[in-house]
Every structure is written in C-alpha cells, then in structure tokens.
Write a structure and sequence with these properties.
- This protein has 454 residues and is an alpha/beta fold.
- The chain folds into two domains: 174 residues, Aspartate Aminotransferase, domain 1, CATH 3.90.1150; 250 residues, Type I PLP-dependent aspartate aminotransferase-like (Major domain) (Aspartate Aminotransferase, domain 2, 3-Layer(aba) Sandwich), CATH 3.40.640.10.
- It is 40% helix and 13% strand.
- The strands form five sheets. Strands 2-8-7-6-5 form a five-stranded mixed β-sheet, with helices on both faces. The protein has a three-stranded antiparallel β-sheet with strand order 9-12-11.
- Strand 3, helix 5 and strand 4 form a beta-alpha-beta unit.
- The protein is globular, with a radius of gyration of 22 Å.
- Bound molecules: ligand F0G.
- The site of ligand F0G has 15 residues, from helix 4 and helix 5.
Length: 454
C-alpha cells in the first residue's frame, strides 16, 4: 500500500481548542512574541517538543495501575530494570526523573575543571551539566552534518579522525567520550552502527570509557536498519543491543524513546562508579529503586520500551516526518535533509533571506506559523545561541525552526494541516518582518525573552 497508516486506533481523545487568527495575534502579542509563554490550550498543533508528550498506549495505562509505590524494592523497579536490560545490557540501571538528572549524576562524578568531553554533538542539557563542572563540551560532527541542504544517510556521525586527533593531543583532559543517538541538535540525524563502533574502539584504545546518550535509540536503530549495509534483515532488538554492547554506560530520557511522560536512567558497567552514583542519587533524586519517579512511572517505561521497537510503529514514525519534509521541500521551503527521526527542521535563514540573523528569522517564522494556524514550533538559532557569555551577540551557526513530532499524538490530517499553514506563510514570506529583543534574562534567554516586531 502507498499510504503508511498510523498503526493504532484511538480510544481516548483530548479536544483541541480552535482559535481565530485575530485571537492568536492578541495572545502572541500578550506573550511578548515568545511561544514558550503561551498557554498550551491556546495552541492547535503543538510541535514545541517530542519530549514527555507521547500518547501512552492502553497497555501502558494498564501497567500504571500495577505500579507498586513501595519506597524500596518495588516490583515496578525490577520490571523496569529487566525491560532496560533486555535492550541495553549494562550491569547497573539507575533510575532518574529525566535525562538531565542522569547527566547530572554522571558528570558530577566523572568531570572536573579543565576536562574535555568530546561527542558527535552534545545536547544543551548535556553541555550544561559538563560546563557546570568547569569542563569543556566539544562537538565533533562530520562536516556533512553542518550543511542543512546536503543529503547523507548518517548525518549524525562523529568525525572519527577528529576524535582520534583530540584523544592523542588532549587525552590527559578526557574522562570519557560521548555519543548522542540520534543527534538532536544536529537535526535529529542518525549515527551508523559502524560509527558507534568506531568511536567506541577509539575510546577503548585510549583507555577512555564510552557513553551513549540514548534518548532516541529506537529511531536511530530504524535508520540503521533502513540505510546501513548488512543491517536491513536484522531484528531491531538485535541492532539495539549491538549499539549498546560497545558502550560502558548510557544516559537516557524516557520522555523520548520509551513513550513515557517522565523518567530516565543512568546505566553503567563500572561497579565502583555505580556505587558512587547510587549514593549521589539518594542525596538528590531518591532511593535507587525509584530514583525520583513513582513506581507507576517505572511500569509505564517498562511497557513503553517493549512498544518502541515495534517495526510498524517505527516505519510510521519516521515516515510521518519525511511526509511533511518532502511536501515542504516540494513547495520550495528549505528543510534539513534528509528528515530526522523526531522532527522536521526548517532552515529559516535561507527561507527568509531579507531578515538578517540578528533580527531572528527563526523567531519571525515561529511567530508567523502560530498566527497563521496556531502551530507552536521552536526556534533553534540566534535567539537560542546568539548571546555569548561575555555579553556580546553573534549569529548562531544556523537559524533553524524545529517542528518536533510528539509520538503517536497527531494524525496524517494534522500533518496536512501543518503543510497548509506553511504554504500560507510561504505565500506571504516577503512581508514577514524581523524582530528585536526588548527584555532578556542573563542566560537561557529563549525561554523567557520578550520580543517586538520591526
Ligand atoms: N539528550 C538529548 C539528546 C535530548 O534531546 C534531551 C532532551 C536530553 C538529553 C535531556 O532529557 O529533557 O529528559 O532532561 N530534549 C528535549 C527536546 C527537551 O525538546 O529536545 P530530559
């Protein structure tokens, strides 16, 4: 069949409140043209993030009711631990309330001032946790990963020659090597199994542990199955296990590829490090069999992990992004190619060449999308990255707008609607104006800054 349908039926629904353009113009103005400040019930299609926004299955809601809320030793923990180990066979599985909490545990224990931690590309919270320890987070993506219009099967790969150079020259400063799958900051792009193995081998050769940020491991594995030689006929679970078999540990946000609304974990093979992590966990998150979560959350994750590796789901999941990306591309809207696993990224800088980077073309586009159709997307560009620690401002490397797809939430007609709204925005794109920031906090300004239109 030509149409890849949503491989689920809908039993429980949430209403969408429809709004008029005039209403949305007023709401956006009152929010200082910052979409983070909107109330979510004023949004028609919410593509701000794919994190924690999944629709849970009937089986997950059923598992929630079996959650055991005992402080210590709850069966929910053991079900969670078994589900994780079925895919990622690490010695120690340490639950945490979300991905950044796992990162905080890891980097508090392994990083110190002056250290350097290379990755394909660190996610913001990973970078934040590394920098909070006084260490440097170094991104080493392949050159193709930095060119939005270029098609490449594994644009999330790490530049292994650069990794080797840095391990040789700066080895004394490097406590670990990281790999993010998929590479979110780089456009939701996958990393090949060969690249994961290559990075792990280099780390091992230099005596360094290798950690995977596995937030979107299932989407990454699907791309490996689709695109990597020798992988196409293998079961997803085998490929997942191969990805993690070469790692010494992982951090995870269960808000992504575990279909949960909250949760995460740190997994480790090093017994001594795991013991230190559990001690810190007790101090900051909770006892090691719940780690800041309710027992019911652990059961939702355990069930979610069984569902996320379903091939019909993964086929639909990745297709729902490429469907939108292909249609935008056909309309001449520049998108990051190929479409990523969890999001479609629009290159706002080339879409709106009359708006200079320091007038925030990405922000102008997200505002126009909200006004035209009530769509909430996220600027990933000069608003997010333009303010430097010394107070100066410079254009970010790219001005992108991310349309992140919540898992199992929207249907194909919602996707058609998104495309139609962008068609309307594109028809009037030359009339869109740049923006200025009228108020901003000292850091992380994109969450709270207020804007005005020129
Ligand atoms: N690593 C990656 C690759 C992520 O995308 C995220 C979160 C985290 C770690 C942190 O996990 O949110 O559970 O603490 N990404 C979300 C996003 C917020 O919208 O891309 P968390």
């Amino acid at each position: 069949m030509k149409t890849i349908i949503e491989p689920f039926r809908i039993k429980s629904v949430e209403p969408i409140r429809m709004t008029t353009r005039a209403e949305r113009e007023g709401l956006l103005k009152a929010a200082g043209y910052n979409l983070f400040k909107l109330h979510s019930d004023d949004v028609i299609i919410d593509l701000l993030t794919d994190s924690g926004t999944s629709a849970m299955s009937a089986a997950q809601w059923g598992a929630v009711m079996t959650g055991d809320e005992s402080y210590a030793g709850a069966p929910s923990f053991y079900r969670f631990e078994a589900a994780v180990k079925d895919l990622m066979d690490f010695a120690h599985i340490i639950p945490a309330h979300q991905g950044r909490a796992a990162e905080h545990l890891l980097f508090t224990l392994i990083a110190k001032t002056g250290d350097l931690i290379p990755s394909n590309t660190h996610f913001d919270t990973t970078r934040g946790n590394i920098e909070a320890m006084g260490a440097e987070a170094l991104d080493l993506p392949i050159a193709e990963g930095r060119v939005p219009s270029l098609d490449h099967p594994f644009k999330g790969n790490m530049d292994l020659a650069a990794l080797e150079r840095v391990l040789k020259a700066e080895g004394h400063r490097i406590p670990a090597v990281m790999m993010t799958i998929t590479n979110n900051a780089g456009g939701g792009q996958p990393v090949s199994l060969a690249n994961i193995r290559g990075a792990a081998a280099l780390a091992r050769a230099h005596g360094k542990p290798f950690y995977i940020d596995g937030c979107r491991f299932a989407e990454n594995t699907w791309f490996i199955k689709l695109r990597e030689e020798g992988q196409t006929d293998r079961p997803i679970k085998d490929i997942v296990r191969d990805c993690f078999a070469v790692a010494d540990g992982m951090t995870m946000s269960a808000k992504k590829d575990a279909f949960a609304n909250i949760g995460g974990w740190l997994a480790l093979n090093d017994d001594a490090l795991a013991e230190r992590a559990r001690t810190l966990l007790i101090q900051t998150e909770g006892f090691p069999t719940y780690g800041g979560l309710a027992g019911r959350d652990l059961d939702a994750i355990a069930q979610g992990l069984k569902e996320i590796i379903n091939e019909d789901y993964l086929l639909y999941r990745v297709r729902s992004n490429s469907y939108i990306a292909e249609r935008l591309d056909a309309m001449g809207i520049p998108v990051v190619k190929p479409a990523g696993g969890h999001a479609v990224f629009i290159d706002a800088r080339s879409f709106l060449p009359h708006i200079p980077p320091l007038e925030y073309p990405g922000q102008a586009l997200t505002c126009a999308m909200y006004e035209a159709g009530g769509i909430r997307a996220c600027e990933i560009g000069t608003v997010m990255f333009g303010r430097k620690p010394d107070g100066t401002e410079a254009p970010a490397a790219m001005d992108l707008v991310r349309l992140a797809m919540p898992r199992r939430v929207y249907t194909q007609s919602h996707a058609d609607y998104v495309v139609e709204v962008l068609e309307e925005v594109a028809a009037a794109k030359d009339t869109l104006r740049g923006m200025s920031i009228v108020k901003e906090p000292p850091m992380m300004r994109h969450f709270t800054a207020a804007f005005e239109r020129f």
